[in-house]
Amino acid sequence: MSLKAALAFYALLHTVTCYTVSITAPDQALIGSSINVSAQLFDNGKPAGKGTYKFTWSDSTGHRKEIETTSASSNWTVVYTQEQPATHVLKVEVDKFFIFWVNEAKARKDIKLDNLLGGSLELIQNNVTRPQMFVSTQEAVNHSILLSELDMAFLRAKGYHIQTYWFQNCTYLGMSNALDYQATYPKAEQYYDVEALVVATLELPPEPIPSTTTTTTTTTTTTTTTTTTTTPATTTTSTTPATTTTPKPTTTSTTTTTTTTKPPARAKRDLIQAMHANAALLGLNLTSALKRQKDSAGNLSVALVNPLGVRRLSKLTVVPGTQPPFDCISKKFVAQDPKQIYGYFQHRIVSKDPVTGFGTTGKNWLQHWEIIHLNVNCKGSPPFELCTRVFTAPYNSTGNETCDRYEPLDSCSYEYKRYFSESKTILFFIRNEVSQTLNQVTINMYEAQRQSQLSVVVVPVTCTLVAVILVVFGVSYYIQRGNRFNVEVADFNFGDTQSVDMEYKTFPQRLFDSIRDAWTWPGQRRHSQSSVDLMADQPPSPGFGGNVGDVDSNLRYNTFN
Questions:
Q1: Of the four, 349, 388, 468, 509, which is 20 to 30 A from 496 by CA?
Q2: Over 70: is that where the pLDDT of 409 sits?
């Protein structure tokens, strides 16, 4: 194949493929440990298929290795001997064989070599690792040092023993032979700086040995006895020689007794040792500090023993006559031993009260036209976040529900207003930095029995009565008014139009005629003073057929009611 054809084929391969390689390696490694690294070849974001590949590994120290394989991945182990801390560059190149080796991808990775153990100090509560520095005041905190897998494997392979020195707010708490220790922080809104120094050594640390004292006792005893007898003088004189008792010799005895002094209680001894160590670290005069205490040694300075009232659950010991190999003030190692491996870890702790005391005030039984008005409150350390979800009642929470849209709150007090047309179950999710609670409240809607209002009955009845009264009053008034009219009826003889009785009379004349007609006056003719009556008394004229004043009895005015 010609060179041009090969170049064209190579260009064609690169147009249809896009290879990348990724290196998996730790960011930090311990000097002297074995580092396992791996590389994976990808084709357009997916693991490449099988083929003939060559992985070329190299680093900045001169290590180099080529590995040919049919898979698209490769592993390599590199060991860095004891040397100064540094950062090394690890490289890998991947070639694929077609007709000749064609370079497909390259990658590099920085690895920091250090003489300190790598890892982190984690805070664990209720088997859950706290993502931040906040811890609950209601649960014990497990301060756990998580070493990197590479460093832990190295320590186990070499048979190292671990000692951990614990500090809190630059106060030495003690030592443990494990990578964790437990304590509680009952006071909220307090800040703590927890530091731990891990020392890995090949020698087993010595245990504290009680002291032994030898006491020598010398006892000297001296006894002297003297007896003298005298005989009085008589006529016969005789002398009795004196008898003297020789005193016993002085006896001296020497007794040697070996006594083992009982050491003080372990807890009290550790307490005193911790106080001395803390006083030295803080630059305090322990004697002056203790003189200020009025009580016994059991009530020693809290600032030197248990700062901020933290309650330790794990037992920490203090080796008599020794101080921790770390100065927390200057953050420097003290008398660092080159045969030992050290690791320094620290974590800030802020204590918080969890969310408790959830409660609501307001009506849970509502009519259909009423609006829900609930006041939600709780206790705990701010800030808070609240989220609500609504389900159709009846609904029982399983505890597995989740909520996405949280609303921040400065205090645990919230006013919930909403309208529902049917019964609902409301789930309230409230959380702060250390806890989360789920509470449910059921809202019941009901139909109230409707009762007729008083106005609905009284107004129609009253109006009806008023209408009846008005009708009765109108009818009676009409009848009464009709009875008051006077009806006058006249009986006329329209045949005789020449009657003089048609003469106009005044009311007094008619009244007089009516009275005259009502009573008959004996001996005289009834007549009025009208001109008609006077004409009736005169004799008729001879030219007329009758008297002009003659009045027909049928032509009389009659008045009646």
A1: 509
A2: yes
In a domain, 245, yes or no: no
User: What would the pLDDT profile of 3-38 be if each residue is shown by its tens digit?
Assistant: 555 555 555 555 556 788 999 888 888 887 888 899
The answer on 334 and 368 residing in a single domain is: no
Give domain status of residue 410, yes or no. yes
Shared domain check, 508 and 405: no
Q: Are residues 302 and 192 in the same domain?
A: yes
Residues 198 and 163: beta-carbon distance below 8 Å: yes
* Count of structural domains within the chain: 4
Residues counted in the chain: 561
Task: Please say whether the beta carbons of 35 and 77 come within 8 A.
Answer: yes
- Burial (CB < 10 A; 0-12, 13-18, 19+), residue 541, is exposed
User: Alpha carbon of 531 to those of 143, 367, 535, 536: distances in Å?
Assistant: 150, 99, 6, 9
Task: Pull the structure tokens for residue 332.
Answer: 């420097």
Residues 146 and 100 in one domain: no
Which range marks the domain in which residue 508 is found? 486-561
Sheet containing 134-136: order of strands: 134-136, 341-352, 191-201, 161-168, 171-176
Q: Residue 177's beta-bridge partner residues?
A: none
Whether 486 and 560 have beta carbons less than 8 Å apart is answered as no
What's the pTM value of the predicted model, to 2 decimals?
0.57
pLDDT in tens, 367-390: 888 888 899 999 999 999 999 999
In contact, 549 and 536? CB cutoff 8 Å: yes
Asked whether the CA dihedral 448, 454, 457, 460 is positive or negative, the reply is negative
Contact 430, 441 (CB under 8 A): no
CA distances in angstroms from 101 to 7, 18, 69, 104, 480, listed in the order given: 13, 16, 13, 9, 137
Residues 161 and 90 in one domain: no
Structure tokens at 77: 């182990």
Coil, strand or helix at 455: helix
Query: Which positions ≥6 away from 232 have C-beta within 8 Å?
Result: none
3-state secondary structure 91-116: EEEEEEECCCEEEEEEEEEEEEEECE
Fill in the DSSP letter of residue 139. Answer: S
Cα 370 to Cα 363: distance, rounded to the nearest angstrom: 10
Q: Which two tokens stand for residue 449?
A: 């029995």
